[in-house]
Amino acid sequence: MSSSPEHIVAIFGGAVAGAEAAEHLSRLGIKTVVFEQNPLPFGKIEDGLPFWHIKLRDKEEEKIIEKLNHPNVHFVPSTRLGNDVQFNDLVEKWNFSAILLATGAWRDRPIPIDGIDAYIGKGLTYQNPFFQWFNHAHDANYSGPTWDVVDDTLIIGGGLASIDVAKAVMMQTTKDALSQKGIHVPLFEIEKKGPADILAEHKLTKEEIGLKGCTLVYRRHAINMPITPIPEDADERRIQKAMEVRQRMIDNLVEKFLFKFVECHMPVDKIISDDRLSGIVFQKTKIEGDRVIPLEGEFSEIRSAAVISSIGSVPEMINGIPMKGSTFAVADWETGQLEGYDNVYLLGNAVTGQGNIKVSRTHGNFVGNLVREKLQSQPPLTTEQMASIFDKVKTRQAEVGYDGDLLHWATKHTPVRLENLEA
Ligand SMILES: Cc1cc2nc3c(=O)[nH]c(=O)nc-3n(C[C@H](O)[C@H](O)[C@H](O)COP(=O)(O)OP(=O)(O)OC[C@H]3O[C@@H](n4cnc5c(N)ncnc54)[C@H](O)[C@@H]3O)c2cc1C
Fold first, then answer.
1. Residues 313, 108: contact at Cβ < 8 Å?
2. Does 102 sit in the ligand 1 pocket, CB within 6 Å?
3. pLDDT in tens, 11-35
4. What is the pLDDT of residue 3?
5. Beta-strand runs (E) in 158-264
6. pLDDT digits (tens, 9 = 90+) for 345-402
7. Whole-number pLDDT of residue 5
8. From ligand 1's centre to the CA of 265, what distance in Å?
């Protein structure tokens, strides 16, 4: 049997982390096959990062396409691991030299209240489907989850993403309330100036347009919000400064976007009326070091028109891939190696636990390099093994109507942009 000194690595998820690993390997002569569940490989850049970050979105999406548009990268769109390709088949029958899972974190951490998820769509939604919809609500061809943004929404959260949810809700409800008065202001303008200044320009108050505003509830203090990093080796003075910055940021956002911020309250029970979620019972907390301590007997209710939960994202389960609790079963958290599999690695959001572009990119590069080094001591694939992989790849590409021209494909599938509609 003849052999060629070549390896082929499968990568699932072609966004920030997956594209980075693909570029690293392809530059060094290793072929990759990048399977992506959606037509376009943009992940949270397209469906998470709020649409008002136009420059960042466009820059990151261009980078992803540039990285995947390499002769050593074979892109397979609209192909979902766990549905269109099964993990066990992949490991047993495809013969890839290594398998990288850059599939992100698309499952919202559930609110720890028994039975509350029965009210999804009946007053409750989570941050991932919310932004997936909010970023594309203006697109007539959009077919994903939907949501009605209403005034007096309660948001449970604490990270940067929960602030984005509060901003989005205030932008949309301000726009809708102004429209009722015959005043039409584009969402981009509301985001830039903030609802407070927009209302001032029109000599109106929140009350005059009938807006209560949304409420963001966090179980810790504003100064504990992970919205500015604090280095592990920071001294007392540095920690103090970072906390002051955090407090100022929250105060400014509340003033500019007109939402309410409630700290030191954790959700403990649901309030249901007419078979809809109509509020949450909270318990007051105190913070001691890293610990959140519920205060005995200190309960209060916040009633609301709707609830959006934004308390973190964890990986979606994929048929056949071992899990430990809410994460994949990882043997080594630094390398992202999957327990029980020598040549299967997780990268980016799927394993870092951090929703950050730079962290995903750095980890994608790190794992790409690690796999390249490992493959040097691994026997290359035979010509027959390679041909068999490429036969399967071509068959799947044909099934999904992809002809190998990534630039043309990306242009054809570019979503409708709100900035073009509002311009
Ligand atoms: C509201 C919000 C605001 C944010 N703001 C910022 C910010 O200001 N700055 C910043 O740095 N970061 C921000 N982030 C985080 C940042 O967008 C992400 O951390 C980063 O884009 C993640 O990249 P990734 O490649 O690791 O994962 P993802 O982008 O999730 O990519 C995973 C890819 O895998 C695909 N996939 C998933 N499952 C499968 C499967 N079974 N088979 C095949 N393909 C699959 C997905 O379609 C996706 O393309 C924000 C995120 C959110 C939600």
1. yes
2. yes
3. 999 999 999 999 999 999 999 999 9
4. 38
5. 215-217, 260-262
6. 999 999 988 889 999 999 999 999 999 999 999 999 999 999 999 999 999 999 999 9
7. 56
8. 29
User: Is the beta carbon of 50 within 6 A of some atom in ligand 1?
Assistant: yes
Query: Ligand 1: distance of its center to the CA of 68 in Å?
Result: 16
Token pair of 104 as six digits:
């992100």
Q: Is 132 close to ligand 1, i.e. is its CB under 6 Å away? A: no
Query: Is the minimum distance from the CB of 81 to ligand 1 under 6 angstroms?
Result: yes
The domain 109-312 belongs to what CATH superfamily? FAD/NAD(P)-binding domain (3.50.50.60)
DSSP string, 115-157: TGGGGBTTTEEEHHHHHHHHTTTT-TT--S------SSEEEEE
SS (H, E, C) 11-57: EECCCHHHHHHHHHHHHCCCEEEEECCCCCCCHHHHHCCCCCCHHHH
CATH of range 3-106+315-422; options 3.40.50.720, 3.30.1330.10, 3.40.50.1000, 3.40.190.10: 3.40.50.720
Can you give the pLDDT at residue 2? 37
Residues in the chain: 423
Asked whether 209 lines ligand 1 (CB < 6 A), one says no
Return the residue whose CA atom lies nearest to atom 50 of ligand 1.
49
Quick one: pLDDT band at residue 161, thresholds 50, 70, 90? very high
DSSP string for residues in 162-174 = HHHHHHHHHHHHH
Residue 103: CB atoms within 10 A of its CB come to: 30
Q: Which of 171, 357, 358, 362 to mutate to test the pocket of ligand 1 (most atoms within 8 A of CB)?
A: 357
CA 402–ligand 1 middle distance (angstroms)? 23
pLDDT band at 56 (very low <50, low <70, confident <90, very high): very high
Q: Distance, CA 45 to ligand 1 centroid (Å)?
A: 6
